Amino acid sequence: MTAFSDKNFKASDYSTFRPQYQDTWFRDILEYHSRIAENKTAIEDKSSKVLDIGCGPGEATIPLIKYFNDITSIDLSAVMINQLKENMRRYQDENPDLKFNGFVSRSEDVSEFIDDNSIDLVTAAECVHWFDIEAWFQEMSRVLKDNGTLAYWCYLDPIFLGNSKANDIYHEMAYGDEYLGRYWQKEARGKIRNLLRESHGILQDKFSDKFKDFEIDYYNPPDFPKQIKFHLNKKCKLIDFINYAKTWSSGHNWIKDHSDISEDSDEYVFNIFLKKFKDELNWEIDTDIELSWNSSYCLARRIPRS
């Protein structure tokens, strides 16, 4: 996860070019959480406390403002936390009742900031593959209130809908060692490419004494238009996709490792990316494309303490 902690990482680009989570997804989380009467009451009277783990610049934190007034966000990267605090200022100005805190911390130990049995909802978006998963599940079981909700999800490997050649180019560039392939953190990337199946299994098998009511699903865009509660689709320009690729940890690591290559150079990996699309598909930077991401989610409920 060192790429996102690098002081030169452009957290603002992460906010701009990453796909945005749909409000329907957050409503689905609330629907699950509200199946318990006291949870529903706490949401209605705005007394619920939310902990957003691996928050980045606020991709999940900010949408949660619509439903909650007490949010704490945690990220290992000071760059991300600083960007989130900047992003949150206007919402705090607009809503004087909004209580927000952002802390730099490991996700597996938030005891410095979060008390036992104090959080109604934990969210973790596009970050669980970086964690020591058993330590994280244990820590989340500590902080969650009885019947509190754990919600985490991931997405990766966008599919260019209706264009298999574009998908071939993507996989060559993203995973070929000649390009970005050797710049991923292999263990974390392997976990997310398996759509967190290992993590889901550990939660169900090793933490069945602490969590229940598991809701887990997967989406593979070739199954389109079949969709699960959490899915990401986006219509954009080719240049938007290229800018999104620059927010990958592998993209940042490549740029850092090739600081002598300018963005104008033909050797700049993202220009090579663009050239392949142009030469093989006759695409330009303003060509319209449609993307859909592989994705997975898990919802689970904290078993009440005896």
From TrEMBL:
**One matching Pfam family:** Methyltransf_11
Q: Which InterPro entries match?
A: Diverse_substrate_MTase (IPR051052), Methyltransf_11 (IPR013216), SAM-dependent_MTases_sf (IPR029063)
* Any coiled-coil regions, as ranges: 74-101
Q: Which organism is it from?
A: Candida boidinii
Task: Describe the family membership recorded for this protein in Swiss-Prot or TrEMBL.
Answer: Belongs to the methyltransferase superfamily.
Q: Which domain of life is it from?
A: Eukaryota
Residue ranges of every copy of the Methyltransferase type domain listed in the record: 51-151
Gene Ontology molecular function, alphabetical: S-adenosylmethionine-dependent methyltransferase activity
One GO BP: methylation
Does the keyword section mention Methyltransferase? yes
NADP as a keyword of this entry, yes or no, is no
Q: Which UniProt keywords apply?
A: Coiled coil, Methyltransferase, Transferase
Q: What is this protein called?
A: Unnamed protein product
